[in-house]
Each structure stands twice: as C-alpha cells, then as structure tokens.
Specification:
Layout lengths: L7 H7 L20 H14 L12 H7 L4 H13 L3 E4 L5 E4 L5 H5 L5 H28 L2 H16 L3 H19 L3 H14 L7 H19 L3 H13 L1 H4 L1 H6 L2
Antiparallel strand pairs: 1-2
Length: 256
C-alpha cells in the first residue's frame, strides 16, 4: 500500500474520499507489470533518457516510494533488483546510499524499455487531463476559498524548496488534487483525480532543475486564481498540461 500522506493540512483541505489511488491503477504496458517491475522500469527509463545521470545519488527508499506512489517494500525490492543487475550500486558509510552505476549495462536497460502502446496511452491520458484541467481551473478561479489558495501557495513554496524529484512529486500531486477540489465540481472532480492518478502512474524521475522550472506555472496559476482571472488561469493550465506531450518519456523518445 502507498505510504501515508505526510501533509496533514493538505489532506484536510482536499476532502477526498480516501488515500490517493495512484498506487493501484491498472494501465496498458507499465500498468500490466507487477508493482516492483513498474518501479524498475520507471527508474530504468529515467537512466536511459539521461534524466538520472551516472553516479547520481537516488533519494532513500522511503522517498523513492513516496515519489513514485508505491509502498516502501515495493521500492526496496525494486532498488535491490536494479542493484543486482548492475544498474544501481549500493555504497555504505557516511557518504553511502544508492547511486546510478557509472556504466549501467545497456542490455539490462534495454530490457526495461516500454513499447509504443505506452506512448499512445500516455498521449491519450494527457489529452484527457487537458479536457478536465481546463474545466477544473475555470471553476477553481471562481470558487477557490482563501484557505485553499493559501495552501496552494504553501505547496508552490514546498516545490520551490524541494531538493529531489521524489520530494517535488509529492507536493505536485497535492497541488493539482487541491485545484480539483477547489473547483467544487463533485463527480467531475473525482474523474479528474482518477485521470491524474493514471497519468502519475507513468511518472519517471526528472532533474530537479526542470521540475523547479515547471513550478513557475504553478505560481502563476495561483496568482491568476487569486485574481479570479478565469481566462488567464485556464491558459496557464492548458500550457502546463500540453507541454507533457513533449516532456514526458514518450515525447523525449519520439524526438530522438
């Protein structure tokens, strides 16, 4: 099961019907794998794409688990499997931890690749999220409460201060789910949250500098929501989601 949400204030404001469903989503390709193999594949793709560099230190297993929305045992077994294959290396001592191998075996990385069916599935999920996101943002600009806006600002600050992709991803998930809740659209919000869950199931680690750059959209969005500027807010959300076609793993691979 996914680890418990560490942000208690956010959980109260979200007012959803339970824990995040990300850990239990069944999808084509990656989603047909075991949870352990899915984590191995997501980390392996990040290494193949150069998003995780040789010698780079990974967050500890609890952070990896939270960042990829899986349980700690799943994360530990996935990291152990990658280390057994020589893709990762474990080091002990004060400066120890889990690192990307200096020369990860190419054959082992190729075995973790995903097929074109995953590309099509994720492009479709991005389009579906676009449809929901624009509607959600429209009504959030009209109905978001002061408490919700304050929490959204806190989450943008948390993302700006994040030092790892795992830490950033947790705040990012809470941010978008809270925008959905702030719309007050009921059943439509639940559908939006499910779409987020399906898309986050494909999340792979990205360099923190790229994630910090994406956070600029979050900051601008909160400002537009505060001003009740529907047109500006929807435009920011549309741009923020549309770029996923080019920056998620399938866009990076298709550009090669």
């Amino acid at each position: 099961m996914p680890d418990e949400d560490p942000a208690g204030a956010t959980e109260a404001l979200l007012a959803t019907d339970g824990d995040s469903p990300i850990g239990g989503v069944a999808l084509a390709g990656i989603g047909r794998m075991s949870a352990i193999d899915a984590v191995r594949t997501r980390i392996g793709m990040a290494i193949s794409l150069g998003l995780l560099q040789p010698g780079e230190r990974l967050p500890d297993q609890h952070e990896v688990a939270a960042g990829l929305s899986v349980g700690s045992i799943t994360a530990r077994r996935a990291l152990t499997g990658l280390a057994d294959e020589g893709i990762l290396v474990r080091r002990r001592g004060r400066n120890g931890g889990t690192f990307v191998a200096d020369e990860p075996p190419r054959d082992a990385l190729r075995a973790l690749a995903v097929g074109s069916s995953d590309f099509a599935a994720v492009h479709q999920l991005v389009d579906r999220r676009m449809l929901y996101e624009c509607s959600i943002t429209h009504f959030a600009a009209l109905d978001a409460t002061e408490a919700q806006l304050g929490e959204l600002e806190r989450l943008t600050a948390s993302m700006a201060a994040s030092t790892t992709w795992a830490e950033y991803h947790q705040a990012d998930e809470h941010f978008h789910r809270l925008v959905g809740t702030a719309s007050g659209l009921g059943a439509a919000t639940e559908q939006y949250h499910r779409t987020l869950a399906e898309l986050y199931a494909y999340f792979i680690p990205y360099p923190i500098r790229e994630l910090h750059a994406a956070n600029a959209d979050h900051i601008q969005l909160v400002a537009a929501l505060r001003e009740r500027d529907v047109v500006r807010a929807v435009g920011i959300s549309r741009r923020h989601v549309d770029v996923l076609h080019r920056t998620m793993f399938m866009g990076l691979l298709e550009a090669e």
